[in-house]
């Protein structure tokens, strides 16, 4: 992977993570770096799931793939936020 690929992954991860976080109600006690990391993972896994589900790759925006990615980002942000809340309560 070259530097362009890494920067692209970070930018796409930031967008996917931010969309996932934006669509969740309430406040999530996680930082921007963790949001971007969740977005990167959600983008990669969402693409893989969409391809396994038979979603065709197009030259434009793959809306169905984007739904998979943002949905996974929402799940990831919610899970990490809940984990962090529970971790802070036990201390």
From TrEMBL:
This is GlsB/YeaQ/YmgE family stress response membrane protein. Keywords: Cell membrane, Membrane, Transmembrane, Transmembrane helix. InterPro entries: Transgly_assoc. It is found in: Cell membrane. Coiled coil: none annotated. The keyword Transmembrane helix applies. It is a multi-pass membrane protein. PANTHER family: UPF0410 PROTEIN YMGE. Belongs to the UPF0410 family. The chain crosses the membrane at residues 6-24, 31-51, 63-83. GO terms for cellular component: plasma membrane. It comes from Actinomadura physcomitrii. The keyword Cell membrane applies.
